[in-house]
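Exercise: predict the structure of this protein bound to adenosine monophosphate.
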Amino acid sequence: MHQATRPDPSPADLDAAAAPAAACTSAPAEGQSASDRAALAPSPFAALGLAPELAAALQELGYEEPTPIQRAAIPPLLAGRDLLGRAATGTGKTAAFALPLIQAADGTPPAPGRPRVLVLVPTRELAMQVAAAIHRYGRARAATVLPVYGGQSIWQQVRVLDRGVEAVVATPGRAADHLERGTLSLEDVRFVVLDEADEMLDMGFAEDIEAILARAPAARQTALFSATMAPRIRALAERHLRDPVRVEIERERAAPGEVPRVRQVAYVVQRAHKLAALGRVLDMETPNSAIVFCRTRLEVDDVTEAMNSRGYRAEALHGGLPQEQRDRVLARFRENRTDLLVATDVAARGLDIEHVSHVVNLDVPTEPESYVHRIGRTGRAGREGVAITFVEPRERRLLASIQDATRLKIRLETIPTAADLSNRRLDQTRASLAEALSAGGLDRYRAVLEGLSAEADVLDVAAAAVKLAHEALHPEGAEEPDIAPVVEPPPRARRGARDGARREPAPRPHEAPRGETAWTRLQVSAGRFQSIRPGDLVGAIAGETGLPSGVIGAIQIADRSSFVDVAVEHAGAISDALRRTKIRGRRVQVREVDLRR
Ligand code: AMP
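Solution:
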């Protein structure tokens, strides 16, 4: 994949691809139709002040227009302002800060160990994602980015830092470590981003963040993003941001109650399993006519292809298609000649179609209004509609904020299993047979049955006929892949955990309700007397195992021991990781505590 996952980190070369010609900025010529002019309209990204080659890179990624956070954050960041942004993951906030910092890079080589951009993120996973995103968005610019996190050899990181990198994306613990060792200097830093600041504080990184920011030049630009604006976040912003522009996208409330008779469900699924999950859910739902919303043109094309090969008549609709083709696609959908319309928001804007039975959000929409608007496309004319939303684990908070803002009830359901689907298909065959029975006209076939009944049991003959009908109705496709269930994190059990603070205990394994994570407790042989903080344990676990922080529950620090609740299925890996690593410079012993005693 990208550079960030290589064991030997090397800075990503951002000038790998030449920028394509920025066709989107050319002026419309005489005599063009309205649709041609639309295709040549200035890129909405360039309109925010982004350089043509960056706008073109986004177009190549299939982005059609900026998300609300991008629209609000990019211009002030380009103008050099500090920014305090309330935005959850999934709103497009990475591009909102990455694009301005890429644009600000002046192309001169950075000095060894002295990056000019520092992005702090709570987890190793996010460090890799953000570094990869900066790489992706900045392909057209000669700059380099290095993810820096715990659990990876510090000396490999030092080697790359020494070659000079434009941007470092780091977890606070590891960044502080490099600063203490003198292998990283912030003297040249011009741009600092605190991403998911609330998560970083929850994980006990407050001290590290303070220590790091104290060493960054005062004359720098700072952006802070957080899903909440809790008092601690405001205090952090007050200390480190200068007259910031405030951007709070999710506060606007969508009008509730506008959506009649829509069953709303959401499925949490890993990105890698999304297409398989979509196919399976659609097969279960058997929609008459559905719109599948995607974020980018590339996704639209992928989904269209995948659903066509699954046997659906699916057609793509996005802004990259000529207007005539879009008109044709829409006409076919309107006449019910296609099953699925796979579209971006932009292309589906203003679309008014009566008979849509299902609206599918392949990703959580970036704002509540968009969710309400999309699902308003179904449940028309007194018919019941269904709205289905696929949620990546990292987008859970975005979904929660949409529910909060809209006060709509979205039920979380688990992805149907291959066995569920197989049963559902049998049901469909049964229903088709029942229909054929009531339609009558079976005399010709009775004669066949009578002939066979001399040789075989009538029920067996009928079963063979059902088998043939079933196979004809549901031709064997590719084998259903496994879709891994997503581990449910404890309901914000990590909240409020700061240095030495007691965390809410997680539910005990025998109490875990169905479908929730079962927990066990690990005892670690170091505690308050050894200056252990919750952040040390979380950092060690996240850094060593790469597991998401959701598998860690309550943490209690006693005098000589600490207790960490972890998801049962990861207990072994977490114990091993804790034994392997040093915490506050010391090796520890780990044992599992029986919670039932
Ligand atoms: P983030 O909130 O930064 O994690 O972004 C969420 C997802 O949205 C990522 O997969 C991005 O690739 C995608 N994305 C970001 N900006 C846009 C945009 N303007 N249009 C479509 N997709 C976007």
